[in-house]
Design goal:
Layout: E1 17-20, H1 27-39, E2 45-49, H2 63-74, E3 78-81
């Protein structure tokens, strides 16, 4: 229940795309999304893969956080999806080679 010290302003400046799977609208998840929206100035897209496309009535979520998330959904910065489809696959991959 404790939120620690926030990182310096420029730590998230290169973050462009974030994808969160199994998003269930709990207080900590909404706080994380709100934090990313406030601190990642270069963020273009935040994909939330969730079984529920509308916020659930969860106790403890700050009204300001829900308003910020709602605004980001309305302007297209947040994309809500029930499916983890190919359009939202990571841009990176791990490559392993045996030597």
């Amino acid at each position: 229940n404790y939120v620690g010290v926030e990182p310096p302003e420029d730590v998230l400046e290169n973050l462009k795309v974030v994808k969160i799977t199994n998003f269930n609208w709990n207080r900590i998840e909404v706080q994380l999304v709100s934090f990313l929206l406030r601190k990642a100035s270069s963020l273009h897209k935040l994909v939330l893969v969730t079984p529920s496309l509308v916020p659930l009535d969860v106790i403890g979520i700050q009204k300001e956080d829900l308003l910020l998330v709602g605004e980001a959904v309305a302007n297209g910065k947040i994309i809500l999806s029930k499916l983890d489809d190919a359009a939202t696959k990571p841009f990176h991959s791990d490559v392993f080679a045996e030597v």
